[in-house]
Amino acid sequence: MLPDKLQAKIGMRHFSGSLRKLTVSKGLVDFSSNDYLGLSKLPLPENVGTNGATGSRLISGHSDLHDQVENQIAQFHNAPAALLFNSGYDANIGLIPALTDRADLILFDQLVHASIRDGIQLSQAKSLKYRHNDLNHLEILLAKFSQEEEREVYVITESVFSMDGDIPDLISIIKLVKKYPNAHLILDEAHALGVLGKNGVGLAQQLNVENDIFARVMTFGKGLGCHGAAVLGSEELKDYLINYARSFIYTTALPQHALHSILNGYKTLSYSDDAVLQLASNVSLFNKLVLQNGLRLRFRESETAIQVCIIPKNDQVKKAAQILQENGYDVRAILSPTVAQGEERLRICIHSFNTEIEMGSMLQLLAKTIKTL
Ligand SMILES: Cc1ncc(COP(=O)(O)O)c(C=O)c1O
Prior knowledge:
alpha/beta, 3-stranded antiparallel β-sheet
């Protein structure tokens, strides 16, 4: 039996219709995975060495292949250096507390991912959120709070927001951050890798501003279709993180088969732009179909693979998702408290392999369903 207060907490989830459960989706059209380019289906590389890495990178887990993969990642992303982490979650909870101490300040977009929030919670720094993509608010906070002695300021945002699919005005954020010599930008590119820029290089490189960013976080569980993450930055930053990022130091290194999968993913992206272009074309087609089905006002504006249809209230959005699933479409509801109350939504992920017929018929059914709710 769980202790009473834990029972009460899980009871609250039942009561508010927001109980989380694991489900397996079989044979449905994929509108929910982050496997934007279908790279998770790449065949596993053969002869990939040992099963496990045997230790942390600093003890027995390091190998030539780790060096090779980090060099290739750095090269692909036009960065001086890359440091692997076991996941994007690990990267964010390692990077942020390692960089900051009590004197420092973190300014973060209010909609950043939970892993960034958790990284901030683990840090000793003062932290303030700015309104989503509101650069005036960011500027006010920078002007007001960046001047303290011995203070470094870290501004944290994402290239593509994971629950909204929108893109910040990165050029203006960089201009703003540059006004303050003690301010540094961290950009989480989780949902931009494989999606934005030539060969899916991500937002910073698409805009040619990669050298203006202190640290970029690339994660491999989404567009790259495998697992793991890397922090991109200077050689000095890499050396520093090897010494101070606890989620890098105190964990078993990625095994060889994971490294080969990452290499494979990057090779596929470098070799051909076709899937990235197909995804972009599907996203613009999807937007046209949204309009044709009279759903424009329900959907958030998004030019990325993440499309969002707002259906307030957990029970309503769950019902809509259920109807779509019963008809063969794997569309998931995002409930409060994951998003704010009243902002409950269907999060629809577009892939390079989704067809016009799949997108069109799913949206037709969605339009019909919304009328009946
Ligand atoms: C913006 C963002 N950062 C980091 C992560 C975590 O990455 P990973 O799944 O590799 O732990 C996610 C995952 O959803 C994300 O959306």
